[in-house]
Amino acid sequence: MLRKPIIAGNWKMNNTIAETEALVKDLIPLVADAKCDVVICTPYTDLAKAVELTKGTNIKVGAENVHWAEKGAFTGEISAKMLVELGVEYVIIGHSERRQYFGETDASVNMRTKAALAAGLIPIVCVGETLEQREKNRTKAVIRKQINGAFADIPEEDAKKIVVAYEPVWAIGTGKTATDEQAQETIKNIRGMIAHLYGRKFANRLRIQYGGSMNPKNVAGLMAQPDIDGGLIGGASLKAEDFSKVVKY
Ligand code: PGA
Question: Domain limits at 73?
């Protein structure tokens, strides 16, 4: 297999420690025989509990953001080293909600990605266009800028660890999934942009997920597309049954 599929849950700002305990305990047996990589990205406060509960299982744990500095006077922020010491292995970077509400830019995405890689975390770098951008036929240009920004000055040996998540903003939490064809088309384009940066062979090995209202009903069609290597799952990752069905598409 050239690219092992990876399905990651993005819990966003959901679940207390007690709720994490219940959800993860339900999830463990349901996904134990999954053929893809399984990741749950949780709020910072749930990470230690999630790592503890998933030890020895096939579930890996990720954070939802990371700061770019090693340490210092950044009140409220969390460094990559802090995450690694907890046993966290993945981190979502540049999610559209962070771009929209918290001033995330392509430059800060790049800095966070470099810091994550330097510490040994696997970054899940999110890109995607808004509805307005799609309607104005700007999807490709917008995503090219995001991809070039995120990967700027990252050498091939590091860049190969990155997972890209294509999440059309209009499909996130709206119940409006991109069609299989729309998702495939854009993800194929993203692979082309990566090939432009690092060569075709490299691009053919990089994993690119789809995200945006992915659920048990539409997962099979999306995963059947030749360039789609997994999913970043919001709403459907909050219920063990639903998430396990996505993971075992
Ligand atoms: P959704 O969220 O599955 O609820 O649309 C996906 C995401 O934002 O990562």
Answer: 6-247
Ligand 1 centroid to residue 165 C-alpha, Å: 11
Q: What is the pTM of this model?
A: 0.98
Per-residue pLDDT tens for 185-199? 999 999 999 999 999
Cα–Cα distance for residue pair 196/149, rounded to 1 Å: 14
Q: Does 1 reside within a domain? A: no
234 near 211, Cβ under 8 Å? yes
Q: Whose CA is nearest to atom 6 of ligand 1?
A: 234
In the chain, how many domains are there?
A: 1
Q: Is residue 63 part of a domain?
A: yes
Identify whether the C-beta of residue 216 lies closer than 8 Å to the C-beta of residue 223: no
**pLDDT (tens digit per residue) in 97-155:** 999 999 999 999 999 999 999 999 999 999 999 999 999 999 999 999 999 999 999 99
Q: What is the CATH number of the domain that holds 211?
A: 3.20.20.70
